[in-house]
Amino acid sequence: MARRQDLTVAMSERVHITTAIFYCNGAPHVGSAYEALAADTFARALRRKLGHDQVSFLSGTDEHGDKIRRAALAQGLRPKAYTDQMSELFRQAFAGLNVTAAARKAPAVDFWVRTTDPVHERFVQEMLNRTYQRGDIYFRDYEGLYCVDCERFYTDKELLPGNLCPSHNKPVELISEGNYFLRIEKYREQVLAHLRSNPDFIRPERFRSEALNMLAEPLTDLCISRPKARLDWGIELPFDANYVTYVWYDAFWAYVSEPATRLGLEAFAHDVWPHTEHFIGKDILKTHAVYWPPILLAAGLPLFRHLNVHGWLNFGGARMSKSSGNVADPVSYERAFGHDVLRYFVMREMVYGLDGDFSEERLIERYNADLANDLGNLVSRVLSMAARYFNGEVRAVPQGVADGVYQGVNWKTIEQLPSPVINRVTEDLDFKRALDEVWTALDTANKYIVTTSPFTLARDPARLNEVAQILANLLEALRVIADTLEPFMPVTTGKIFDLLNASGAQARAPYGHGLKAGHTVNPPIALFPRIEKTARA
Ligand SMILES: [Zn+2]
Description:
- The protein has two domains: 2-334, 3-Layer(aba) Sandwich (Rossmann fold), CATH 3.40.50.620; 359-508, Orthogonal Bundle (Isoleucyl-tRNA Synthetase, Domain 1), CATH 1.10.730.
- The radius of gyration is 26 Å and the shape is elongated.
- The protein contains 22 helices and 16 strands.
- The chain has 537 residues and is of the alpha/beta class.
- The strands form four sheets. Strands 3-2-1-12-13-7 form a six-stranded parallel beta sheet, sandwiched between helices. A four-stranded antiparallel beta sheet has the order 5-4-6-8. Strands 9-11-10 form a three-stranded antiparallel beta sheet.
- Helix 12 (285-298) links the parallel strand 12 (276-281) and strand 13 (306-310).
- It starts with a helix and ends in a 29-residue tail after the last helix.
- Zinc ion is lined by residues 147, 149-150, 165, 167-168.
């Protein structure tokens, strides 16, 4: 019951959803697409509950730092020219997957942020100034072991034997220089207390435990500057023109900069920011659990609501990453298999928070079994019968359980849609079980056809009334199933609504309030033609 109360409180709030800000030194892969798709599915589900404009959704690209500068140089480009290309590559890939933040159709609530945008750069400087004036940034000489690829200093105990970087397994360099530091240790107890009193601040639970461990011992203050002599591709410190800010400090603020500028910082910080849902991969848990909260507190801002941490989408058992070369281009799957297929696959296969495996064979299996057979065939059979027997006309008022739909199937699995499915997403991040419930509804509809056998009844003209009733029920079932699928399969939902001639409030109505007697539907098309082999050459 507590959940329902949370929901009531949430109704008056605007919720802010973010993906990580993608470091664009390589093309997007299916792993980065997974995060964008999960966040988009969550955003779409939440928009159904709270209203479209009550949910802002932000994604974008992290474009500063030495790795970007070097990737640009390798292509003979200036960094900005390089990131212009790369950011657009990410945006188009995600927009092609119907990720609303990247498609930016509603600019007041959909944000695609680039850390090289002037609005963002000004905002980061404002936050640096605020923090500096509050006394939480200080200057000191520092000598430390530095990994050029990580762009960060390491302590002795973090390094592998032989002073090797734990991420790159190559020697770090001893560097001595003056730098600016952010007091993060000062806020450690406050962050710990927040984690203890908000058990779902970081979810799932295993990542909260990891974060509690990370925060159990004193932290080394965070170096937030880089001397321009060493690296000039960054945002200049407003209080020292000899330095740019550390790329992570810069990138975090991408979650805030544009929406806060649009709404005004105070209004955003008060009304929106405390209801922020971050979606990140487990590889950046530490930066988000240990660095980001003190960065916010030191700037005088409140903490976000949830850090939703997902596992890795592995490819042939190994983590998919830019450097390992086992990347798969998400757009190629969209082209080869059609809209929504990749999104459906990763949302149905992955348990949020756990690692999962991606393989084309498994994708094709799911496509044929779930999409071609269960969903595609149902749409096609029902619309064919409606066309053949009644010229597409709905000839009865759809029935529900109260009226006796029945016949060995649990019609409630259809009638109660979409609420339980939407709640599984917005409250539990349980995308997989949400889709399991949609497929239970599809099974119900398919079994109902088997048990009632309308094609047999239709041979007897005296029983056409019964057939009309069965088809009215099935068409209405298709409509609520399509409506429920929208966060997961937005294009497919649109296609089924078109086939059903349903739009607006009629398409979105609860079961029994959509297709009325006299309504006409269209003849079927094949939504998901079966795939016999690997579709990609
Ligand atoms: Zn490294």
